[in-house]
Write a structure and sequence with these properties.
This is ArsR family transcriptional regulator. It contains six helices and two strands, in the order H-H-H-H-H-E-E-H. It is mostly helical. It has one domain: Arc Repressor Mutant, subunit A, CATH 1.10.10.10. It has a two-stranded antiparallel sheet. Helix 2 packs across helix 6, helix 3 packs across helix 5 and helix 4 packs across helix 5. The longest helix has 13 residues.
């Protein structure tokens, strides 16, 4: 049993709780992470899939991008059809949010 507690302690030490907290402090950021965990998508697709306003989704994507949780998967100069996906940090944050039932 001690090894299980040690493993859990090691796992908790490797969690970036600041990133997790930032994501769960906004329903829109949480929505973006959840949807992108399913696979890459455009802001319009995320908005349609989640019944949210595209402006709020776009804003949340940009904020998560600044925090290193979301990345643009197409060239920066592309204005239409911009596809986004989760970074490794975003995937880790989403895993923690799900596994710790923070949703």
């Amino acid at each position: 049993m001690a090894s299980t507690q040690e493993e859990q302690s090691d796992t908790n030490e490797n969690i970036d709780w600041d990133m997790v907290s930032y994501a769960i402090s906004s329903q829109y950021r949480l929505t973006v992470l959840e949807r992108l965990a399913e696979g890459p998508a455009t802001p319009t697709r995320i908005a349609a899939d989640t019944d949210r306003h595209v402006a709020n989704i776009s804003r949340s994507i940009q904020r998560l991008r600044k925090r290193g949780q979301v990345e643009l998967l197409v060239p920066e100069d592309r204005k239409k059809g911009r596809v986004y996906g989760l970074t490794e940090e975003g995937q880790q944050s989403w895993h923690v949010i799900e596994s710790q039932e923070l949703v």
